[in-house]
C-alpha cells in the first residue's frame, strides 16, 4: 500500500523506539513504520489484526505511540483489504 501511494515519499521499517511502562517495567515499542509524505509530514504506522487490538500490552504500546510527536495511525485488515 505504501509503495503504491503517490503521496508517500518514503517509509522505514521499525526506525524508532518509543519508551513505555507495562506491568511496572520499562519497555521499548518499535512501531512498524515511519512514513514520510511528499509534503514533508510524517506519521507512525502500526499494522495489527483487529483481534489483537484489545490486548493490554498492545493498548499500552498504542497509548505511548499516541503521546509521541508524530501522529499515530493504526492499520488493521479492514484498511488493508478494502
Tertiary shape: globular
For this entry, what is the oligomeric state of its chains? Answer: single chain
The largest beta-sheet arranges its strands as 1-4-5-6
Number of strand elements = 6
**Class by SSE composition:** alpha+beta
What CATH calls the topology is Trna Endonuclease, Chain: A, domain 1
How many domain regions?
1
* Percent of residues in helices: 10-25%
CA-atom Rg in angstroms: 13 Å
Q: How large is the count of helical segments?
A: 2
Q: Mind describing the biggest β-sheet?
A: 4 strands, mixed
Q: Give the H and E element order.
A: EEEEEHEH
Q: For this structure, what is the CATH class?
A: Alpha Beta
Written overview of the protein:
The chain has a single domain (8-80), classed as Trna Endonuclease, Chain: A, domain 1. The radius of gyration is 13 Å and the shape is globular. A four-stranded mixed β-sheet has the order 1-4-5-6. The mean pLDDT is 96. A hairpin with a 4-residue loop joins strand 4 (33-37) and strand 5. The chain contains two helices and six strands; from the N terminus they run βββββαβα. By secondary structure, it is of the alpha+beta class. Helices cover 18% and strands 38% of the residues.
Amino acid at each position: 500500500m505504501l509503495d503504491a501511494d503517490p503521496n508517500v515519499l518514503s517509509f522505514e521499517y521499525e526506525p524508532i523506539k518509543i519508551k513505555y511502562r507495562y506491568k511496572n517495567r520499562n519497555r521499548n515499542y518499535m512501531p512498524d513504520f515511519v512514513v514520510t509524505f511528499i509534503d514533508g509530514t510524517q506519521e507512525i504506522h502500526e499494522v495489527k489484526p483487529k483481534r489483537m487490538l484489545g490486548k493490554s500490552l498492545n493498548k499500552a504500546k498504542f497509548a505511548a505511540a499516541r503521546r509521541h510527536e508524530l501522529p499515530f495511525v493504526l492499520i488493521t485488515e479492514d484498511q488493508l483489504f478494502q
